[in-house]
UniProtKB/TrEMBL annotation:
PANTHER family: S-ADENOSYLMETHIONINE:TRNA RIBOSYLTRANSFERASE-ISOMERASE (PTHR30307:SF0)
Pfam families: Queuosine_synth
EC number, as in UniProt: 2.4.99.17
Function, as annotated: Transfers and isomerizes the ribose moiety from AdoMet to the 7-aminomethyl group of 7-deazaguanine (preQ1-tRNA) to give epoxyqueuosine (oQ-tRNA).
Family per similarity comment: Belongs to the QueA family.
S-adenosyl-L-methionine is among the record's keywords: yes
Higher taxonomy: Bacteria, Pseudomonadati, Aquificota, Aquificia, Desulfurobacteriales
Name the record gives this protein: S-adenosylmethionine:tRNA ribosyltransferase-isomerase
Swiss-Prot/TrEMBL GO biological process terms: tRNA queuosine(34) biosynthetic process
Family annotation (HAMAP family): QueA (MF_00113)
Keywords: Cytoplasm, Queuosine biosynthesis, S-adenosyl-L-methionine, Transferase
Organism encoding this protein: Thermovibrio ammonificans (strain DSM 15698 / JCM 12110 / HB-1)
Length: 343
């Protein structure tokens, strides 16, 4: 299977720079995967497509202000993106420009935050040990001096409102460096309407890392390797999902991160196990889904692992046809864009 099989043309002007306001006023494309039929709705209309007893699963990860702007002792500017906490004060980071960040280099940031490069962690990545002033924790200081890690394709500087907008209303567990964007469309009012209708809402956690968006650099899909990401499935979520599967009720995943979490936590019989783990599950056409019955997702980058996952769920031709229709109808794409519901 070739990566080029998942390519499509997207006019640059359709890449959303700001989210819809209010959140649930974004457009919603409904794709029926059995027939390929497409409907055009507004996101809050998703209530019409869910029935009492459906289990809607959300990713409650919270985006941290993972972008740090600092300087070397020479005065040269550096930019870090926090990727993974290795020890309490040691982080794996994506560094720019990486070639200047040699082992032993000292880094200075706002608020008295300092760092020392302790080693290499792969292409463009470094291990940095941070030091903070007495009386403040690293995470407290990060909230003050860190920046929202907006995806580069948004092509604008962060604004104060992005702190709220690039976060789901149900975010509660800090650790992500990118938002689970399908969840950005939900408002508290919409979630309440869903509960009133008898929809059961549960959560999992997968701290979204840059590996989710890592470009596929091989020609053959099967040769791509995903990075590991940490996930957690609460006991009550596992119990409800398993009960629903036994009773023939639908599991509706909000976002590809929820799909990967549930499918990673499931045994071959589809039974989801509670607990914590890490996953590098790569889902592409040919994958047999064990848990998820319906999917809420955004429109994804061409040739990405995300569009491959969606194609595995709904069929490559149907997905690419839906994307062509979205372009024709002027849908907004990517993190701050519109949504698709595959039923």
């Amino acid at each position: 299977m070739k990566v080029s099989d998942f390519d499509y043309h997207l006019p640059k002007e359709l890449i959303a720079k700001f989210p819809a306001e209010p959140r649930d006023s974004a457009r919603l494309m409904v794709l029926h995967r059995d027939t390929g039929e497409i409907e055009h709705r507004i996101f809050r209309d998703i209530v019409d497509y869910l029935v009492p007893g459906d289990v809607l699963v959300l990713n409650d990860t919270k985006v941290i202000p993972a972008r740090l702007l600092g300087r070397l002792s020479t005065g040269a500017k550096v930019e870090l993106l926090l990727l993974r906490q290795v020890e309490p004060d040691l982080w794996e980071v994506m560094a720019k420009p990486a070639k200047k960040l040699k082992t032993g280099k000292e880094l200075v940031f706002e608020g008295g935050l300092r760092g020392t490069v302790e080693g290499y962690a792969g292409e463009g990545r470094r291990l940095v040990r941070f030091r903070v002033p007495e009386g403040v924790s690293f995470m407290e200081l990060l909230e003050q001096v860190g920046h929202v890690p907006l995806p580069p394709y948004i092509e604008r500087e962060e604004r104060p409102e992005d702190r709220k907008l690039y976060q789901t209303v149900f975010a509660s567990r800090p650790g992500a460096v990118a938002a689970p964007t399908a969840g950005l469309h939900f408002t508290e009012e919409l979630l309440e309407r869903l509960r009133d209708k008898g929809i059961i809402i549960k959560t999992v956690t997968l701290h979204v890392g840059p590996g989710t968006f890592k470009p596929v650099k091989v020609e053959e899909v099967e040769k791509h390797q995903m990075d590991y990401e940490v996930y957690s499935v609460p006991q009550e979520t596992a119990l409800e999902v398993n009960r629903a599967k036994q009773e023939g009720r639908r599991i509706v995943a909000v976002g590809t991160t929820v799909v990967r979490t549930l499918e990673s936590a499931a045994g071959e019989d589809g039974t989801v196990k509670a607990g914590e783990g890490s996953t590098n599950l790569f889902i592409y056409p040919g994958y047999r889904f064990k848990v998820v019955d319906a999917l809420v997702t955004n429109f994804h980058l061409p040739r990405s692992t995300l569009i491959m996952l969606v194609s595995a769920f709904a069929g490559r031709e149907k997905v690419l046809n839906a994307y062509r229709e979205a372009v024709k109808e002027g849908y907004r794409f990517y993190s701050y864009g519109d949504a698709m519901f595959i039923v």
